[in-house]
Write a structure and sequence with these properties.
The chain is mainly beta. Helices cover 0% and strands 21% of the residues.
Length: 78
């Protein structure tokens, strides 16, 4: 799986998630309205689609890898 699909963990009570090394895209609303508290965006992520983390009110920290290759950041993704 090279994409975390749309609504993958949307509205889930997941607090922590590690993005696998083979993923390059975080899909639209993949984690929307979830209970994530922090997320690290690894260097392999090229695209974060619209609203991927929308409504994650517990999300306090977002970090990006120093060698990030992020090319596309969707609308209202955080």
């Amino acid at each position: 799986m090279n994409t975390i699909p749309r609504d993958f963990y949307a509205r889930f009570n997941v607090k922590h998630f590690s993005i696998p090394d083979n993923v390059v895209t975080i899909g639209r609303t993949a984690f929307a309205m979830s209970s994530l508290m922090n997320i690290h965006i690894p260097s392999n992520i090229k695209t974060i689609e619209d609203k991927a983390f929308l409504g994650c009110y517990d999300l306090k920290q977002v970090t990006f890898a120093e060698d990030s290759v992020l090319e596309n950041l969707g609308a209202m993704c955080f």
